[in-house]
Structures are given as C-alpha cells and as structure tokens.
Amino acid sequence: QLQASGGGLVQAGGSLRLSCAASGFAFDDYAIGWFRQAPGKEREGVSCISNGVGNTYYRDSVKGRFTVSRDRAKNTVYLQMNSLKPEDTAVYFCAAKTFRGLLIIPCTIFGGPPVGMDYWGKGTQVTVSS
C-alpha cells in the first residue's frame, strides 16, 4: 500500500514536501509517481521517479519548481514543491507501477491518463492561497 502525507495550506510562493511511504510490495521494482486532481478537473500526472537511476518525469507546468526523489532505505518517495501557485491547488495522489519482465520501469505512463496503476495512495490536499 501507499500512504501519502505532507499536504497543507500555503501562500503562493511557498513550499511543501509531500511524502509517499510504500509497504507490502517490492519498492525497488516500481516506478512511483504523483497525480493531482483539482475540483471539477480530471486527474493528471505531475511527476514520477523510476526505479532506475536518473529517470524522472515532470509535467511542463511544474518543471523547475517540483523535484521528485526516492529514499530506498525508507521505501519513500518525496515531492518537493517550491514556488507554489494557486493553480497547484489539488488533491495529490501517489501511485506505483511495475511491468513484468522489465528491470527498469519507465515513467512514461505517468504522463498519460491515470489508469493501469498497481497501487494508489489516499490523497493529500494541497491548497495554495493567492
């Protein structure tokens, strides 16, 4: 399972760090990423980090502001969000994906619709005030 935490209320320009703690599956075999869903909008991929070195994904609107990382010792993925904007307001969900037969799991699936994930965490609310 996945447990997301770290959301909250912050002013525009502020920062938050989300955490996604994994348990019950082989963390090192999965790409882990983040989706978000704002009221009245579809869920969209935000970022991902592969189980391979240096393979990450960011949607264009967060590039340069968000940084994803993973701590294998803690089975946890982090999303550091800086320079937050009101349009970043959403419920953020972490998700995990693997493919049988692949040693390195690419992040490309996190750039598409939120389907086919193996695990989902409960969302954490991020609210950015203007």
Total of DSSP H or I helical runs spanning 4+ residues: 0
- Measured on Cα atoms, how large is the radius of gyration? 14 Å
Apparent shape: globular
Task: Give the topology string: H per helix, E per strand.
Answer: EEEEEEEEEEE
- Which spans of ≥5 residues are poorly predicted at pLDDT below 50? none
How does the major sheet shape up?
7 strands, mixed
Category by helix and strand content: mainly beta
Number of strands: 11
Bin the helical content. under 10%
Mean pLDDT: 96
Distance between the termini: 34 Å
Strand % is over 45%
Give a structural overview.
It is a single chain. With 130 residues, the chain is mainly β. It contains no helices and eleven strands. The chain is globular.
List keywords for this structure.
mainly beta; globular; 45% strand; 130 residues
Task: Write a short abstract of this structure.
The chain is an all-beta fold.
Summarize the topology.
Layout: E1 2-5, E2 8-11, E3 16-22, E4 31-37, E5 44-49, E6 56-58, E7 66-71, E8 76-81, E9 90-97, E10 119-120, E11 124-129
Parallel strand pairs: 2-11
Antiparallel strand pairs: 1-3, 3-8, 4-5, 4-9, 5-6, 7-8, 9-10, 9-11
